[in-house]
Each structure stands twice: as structure tokens, then as C-alpha cells.
Design brief:
about 240 residues, Restriction Endonuclease, globular, 11 strands, alpha/beta, two-stranded antiparallel ribbon, 9-stranded mixed β-sheet
């Protein structure tokens, strides 16, 4: 006889485990850069474990074919099928802009300075030039697909505001320019948010922050489809022999 699994308990246990781990880092790691690196690794490991294998997750810079690069990005979700080049130099990764689905800044707390900081990071990526070329398949050729807007967000352990998504949050979000807006975010012990197309917000309860964030993020990734196939010839023009 089949037995039922309590899915809600599984989701809540997952959040509690993550929260315990991050609070332990906050408590015991006093060196700020080391603390930040440890928190980033935990989020990268979490998303790498639960997202489908088609999505890669790393901390890196984003570059375009002109050689322009973004600010350093704490967490990037990207694809390597149609944009295969990921450059590794002295342990630092450079990911082509065409490969990128989503970017996140990771901080300890949700507040106005961190929203503005994450927004500036988002703008540094969205301003890069992306290419798109036709894709040849067995039955013919797919035309170049239009580039989509890269998802951007902010991930934190807690919020400096109570309630987390009240007036102060809305005022901070309302000052962002179009290329800076944040689509989604998580304050792990306080709740998560999703900015809908009509400008309104979906938010979670504190207890369901992690699973709400994950499901809403995964839905956004699904809606983006596949990244555009990059024009490798444009990147190769950096070489003297081509």
C-alpha cells in the first residue's frame, strides 16, 4: 500500500536546515569577507543541488563580446549548451552575457543600501551587449531568438524592516531605474517576494520563504526558455588570426 509523504514538512525542514546553517556562519565567523564567501557557497550549493542540471550556478563576472565586463556577481544562474565559453583565469570565472539567466546579490540583511547595491549589480549586467544567431537543427534552422530580460534579485538571511515588505521596502524599490529593478528576493527568516509584471508584489510567510523563493525562481527560469545562441565569431575577433 502506498504511503503519503508530508511535502509541507519536507519544505519547512529544508528551510530550517538552511537557516540554521546561515545563522551558525553569522554567529561563529567574524571576518566579514570570509563570512560573505561562506554564505555565498551555501546558496550556490543549494541552488546547484535543486535546480535541473541544465542550469549552472557560480559566482563570477559577466562579459560581452566587446570586452566589457560587469561588476562581480555573487550568484549567477547560467547555461553552457548554446553559449559554451566560460573563461577561468586564476580562479576567477568570466561568463558570456548570452549565457546568463539570472543574477543575485547575497547580503546578511534586507535594507535600502543593499537593495540599491543589488540594483547597481543588475544594471551592470543588463547593460552588456548580447548576441543571438540562428540554430541549425535536423529539420532546418531556427531563427535567432530575441534576448530576454535577465532576472535579478537579492538574497539575505534576515530583514532590517518589520514588516519586511512594508512602506520602507516599497519606497526603496520605487527609486530603482528600469535596468535596476529586482524581480525576486528572499529574506530567509522573514519572507520572500516576487515582482509581478503589473508591478504588484507576491510575498510569502516567513516559514515558507525558501520554498516560495525557489518555486517562483524556477517558474521564472522556465518562462525564459533557453538562452540565445551566442555569436562566437564576434567573440573571436579579439584574436589576431581571425
Amino acid at each position: 500500500m502506498n504511503k503519503k509523504v508530508n511535502m509541507k514538512e519536507l519544505f519547512l525542514d529544508m528551510q530550517q536546515e538552511m537557516l540554521t546553517r546561515l545563522n551558525s556562519i553569522r554567529k561563529h565567523v567574524t571576518h566579514a569577507p570570509t563570512k560573505g564567501d561562506a554564505v555565498e557557497r551555501n546558496w550556490i550549493e543549494f541552488l546547484s543541488a535543486y535546480l535541473p542540471n541544465r542550469y549552472c550556478v557560480d559566482s563570477a563576472f559577466v562579459v560581452d563580446h566587446t570586452g566589457t565586463r560587469s561588476d562581480q556577481i555573487d550568484l549567477i544562474i547560467y547555461d553552457q549548451q548554446y553559449s559554451p565559453f566560460v573563461f577561468l583565469h586564476d580562479g576567477v570565472k568570466f561568463i558570456p552575457a548570452e549565457s546568463v539567466y539570472a543574477i543575485f546579490e547575497i547580503k546578511q540583511a534586507l535594507n535600502k543600501p543593499h537593495i540599491e547595491y543589488a540594483a547597481a549589480k543588475a544594471e551592470s549586467v543588463r547593460a552588456l551587449k548580447r548576441t543571438s544567431v540562428p540554430i541549425v537543427h535536423a529539420g532546418g534552422t531556427y531563427p535567432p531568438r530575441p534576448v530576454f530580460e535577465i532576472v535579478a534579485g537579492l538574497i539575505t538571511t534576515s530583514s532590517d524592516w518589520s514588516p519586511p515588505f512594508g512602506k520602507s521596502f516599497h519606497e526603496a524599490m520605487g527609486t530603482l531605474k528600469p535596468w535596476q529593478h529586482l524581480n525576486i528576493g528572499c529574506a530567509l527568516d522573514s519572507g520572500s517576494f516576487l515582482l509581478k509584471q503589473d508591478g504588484s508584489l507576491d510575498t510569502s510567510t516567513p516559514e515558507e520563504a525558501l520554498i516560495f523563493f525557489f518555486i517562483k525562481l524556477f517558474t521564472q527560469l522556465q518562462n525564459l526558455g533557453t538562452v540565445p545562441a551566442m555569436d562566437i565569431d564576434l567573440y573571436s575577433r579579439a584574436l589576431d588570426s581571425i
